[in-house]
Amino acid sequence: MKQEIHFVTGKGGVGKSVIAAALALKLSMQGKNVLLVELGDQSFFKDFFELGEVGFQPRSIKPNLSLALWSGESCLREYAQYLIKIESLAKLFFDNAVMRAFINIAPGLPELAILGKVTSGPRKYGPPMNFDAVVVDAFATGHFKALIQAPKGMAQAVQFGPMGEQSRSIINVLKDETISKYHIVSLPEELPLKESAELAAAIKEELSVHPSLVLNKMLDVKVSRETLQKEEQNSSSDLGKFALYLEQQLDRQAEMFKQAQLQHDSIKQVPLIFELDAWGLVEKIVEKV
Amino acid sequence: MANRIFDNTNVLVCVGSGGVGKTTVAASIAILAAKEGKKVLVLTIDPAKRLAQTLGIEGTNDVTRVPGQNFKGELYASVIDHKKTFDDFVERAAQKSEAVRKIFDNSLYKQLSTNLSGSQEFTSLEKLYSCYESKQYDLIILDTPPTKHALDFLKAPQKLSALFTEGVAKWFRDPEGKKSGFFGHLIQAGTRQVLKVLETLTGSQFIRELGDFFLNIEQWQGKLLQRTIDVQRMLVAPTTRFFLVTSFDQAKLKEAEYFSREIRKGGYQLDTVILNRVFPHWLDLRVGYEGSTAEQDLAELYSQMKSYYNQRDAIYRQFETKMSQQARVLRIPDLVKDISDLAGLEELSTLIREQETL
After folding, report:
1. How far apart are the C-alpha atoms of A173 and A148, rounded to whole Å?
2. Res B185 pLDDT > 50
3. Which residues of A touch B108 (CB under 8 A)?
4. Which residues in chain B are contacts of A139 at CB distance < 8 A?
5. Any chain A CB within 8 A of the CB of B143?
6. Which one of B166, B307, B315 has the shortest CB-CB distance to A97?
7. Which residue segments constitute the domains of chain A, with CATH numbers given?
8. Which domains, ranges and CATH numbers included, belong to chain B?
9. Mean pLDDT over residues A137-162, rounded?
10. In angstroms, what separates the C-alpha of A231 from chain B's closest C-alpha?
11. By CB neighbour count within 10 A (0-12 exposed, 13-18 middle, 19+ buried), where does B286 fall?
12. Which of A114, A204, A233, B79 is the most buried (most CB within 10 A)?
């Protein structure tokens, strides 16, 4: 079976990480061996799920579900070790202060290293990754665009040598829709939706793929309009204010949903859930993603 | 501790992760200060279109007097143009026009000055410093670039300047170590190996581009270092304060605690933590649920929501107690609408003011 790669992105603050976790949990419950990947130096899930340390090496957090935290530097380090084979030389390279400074900011290099690692399964390159699915809790909009543009930029800048070759093979995996799936998380609000539409266009243009939209925190109200309006008469009570709030939100949400339908082919809706327990929340979302 | 967020303050740096409403909060605080008679400049990064229209800065990078204002003081706003700020800086630092042209033509520079991690943070501070230096404003509020974590903003410029100040160019100038003496040669041998590794990883063409780039920028490393020191001095000055805007969940609160510790270690002053959009503004947490004449489903949904916010309230109180030694905590309700005109910003600023005086 081919490894699937899911990229979850969207505007900051829309609930990307929770959606990514729910997607990963869902795939793991289908019997797949799943790796949930966070990008960067600090783990969100560490505090969210109250785990111990989260690092580069995957650790199991649920049956069939592992979690890892990958930064540009750690991915590049592994890549270098794999390529150089001599550990002491790789260590010399990475312990060099200037090299460390350079790696952290070199144009596109951290991004390329991360994508190289994420796509290493299908490309059969590097240390083996025994997962059926990789779910990447990816960067927010701006940085995500930079991430998917990195291999093209690198392939153009360096046409020969290992870097150019790697970049081209990464692009092929990113463009293969049987392997790579893109999920843009958004809210039924104007600004996040606008950003989602722009991001979807950028992903389509860069990779010729079709990202799907996940509309998060949709109010799911079974109460009729009449009841809401009746309750609103009592405008001094909290319940009356609540009814008014619900009605306004439902109107706005309906309008936003219509707008989203014009911009996206595939839309999934995730309801707003009043749940403080982290796993409780993720479990309730599973069936919606 | 100052009574108001901007008392005895010339520079307010607004930090926080993406999507928490930093820009809106920064603009609202600017309005509060302008109302008190201050001449205020708010520097924004990437304002939403309508907010930019309200501030009068859509499609321009000039400092603009915000239209339609009627404050005791004055409110100015500007969007930071990262590419232009970076180019201006290089032009001033490099002096010789030939060198400037060479740098601008280098393909790595093009990436460095636009979408490289750390470059937006660098240019934000650069712009802030040049406005600070001009001494034209009583108060400058900097809205920082969206980062995944609040602390990234402070780390990024250090990452960038480390690269310029640790003498990378030296390597590329003399990778074979021909001119060095015996000891120099020993050091260079290590360097050569490191460069070889880099070549194995990336290919020789990349190394050439890179070497070219560093040789070009070498001449303004000194200027950059001096600037970094000046900026740092401004950031740790007693008249510079940081405030953190964050949303409300347990992971974010932990991050806020971590952030406040780290920011103190760095010698900066964290004044206020603003928890934004904590609960819907109409919800009165102190009032119990009254009666049950309502339709059952509605009442159930209401009590679900209410108990959710009540539990969050308990978490909030713990957080406030824990933080009280380090910073004051304000919690701002959600107005449940897009805030994009001056009236909306003023409404938000009133909420902030109310919290300040609690």
Report:
1. 11
2. no
3. 107, 157
4. 148
5. no
6. B166
7. 4-220+265-286 (3.40.50.300)
8. 11-164+233-357 (3.40.50.300)
9. 83
10. 7
11. exposed
12. A114
Nearest to A101 among B148, B166, B308 (CB): B166
| A73 band by pLDDT with thresholds 50, 70 and 90 | confident
* CA pair distance A65, A81, nearest whole angstrom: 26
Alpha-helix runs per DSSP H in chain B: 22-35, 49-55, 82-94, 97-105, 107-114, 119-134, 152-165, 168-173, 182-202, 204-217, 221-236, 250-265, 296-323, 342-357
B135 Cβ contact list (under 8 Å, min separation 6): none
Give me the pLDDT at residue B297, please: 80
- Can you tell me the distance from the alpha carbon of B306 to that of B300, in angstroms, rounded to the nearest whole number? 10
Please report where in the chains the tokens 């596109």 appear, as a residue.
Answer: A108
Exposure letters A134-148 (e unless 16+ CB within 10 A, then b): bbbbbbbbbbbbbbb
One DSSP character per residue, A50-118 reads T-S---SS-EEEETTEEEEEE-HHHHHHHHHHHHH--HHHHHHHHH-HHHHHHHHHSTTHHHHHHHHHH
Taking a C-beta distance cutoff of 8 angstroms, is the pair A110, A71 a contact? yes
Residues found in chain A: 289
Q: Which residue in the block uniquely carries the two structure tokens 């489903």?
A: B297
Burial class for B188, CB neighbours closer than 10 Å (0-12, 13-18, 19+): buried
Q: What is the pLDDT of residues B46-104, one digit of tens each?
A: 787 888 989 999 888 889 999 999 999 999 999 998 888 888 887 887 777 777 777 77
Contact B331, B351 (CB under 8 A): no
What residue type is assigned to position B224 of the chain? L
Q: Is A153 on the interface with B (CB under 8 A)?
A: yes
Report d(CA B112, CA B86) in Å as an integer. 9
Query: Which is more confident, A261 or B105?
Result: A261
Identity of residue A245? Y
Of chain A, the end-to-end C-alpha distance in Å amounts to 22
**Residue B29 near residue B163, CB atoms below 8 Å:** no
| Cα–Cα distance, B2 to B206 (Å, whole number) | 52
- Tokens 């008249």 correspond to B239
| A40:B20 CB<8 A | no
pTM listed for this prediction? 0.85
Identify which of A248, A214, A222, A108 has the alpha carbon closest to the alpha carbon of residue A166: A108
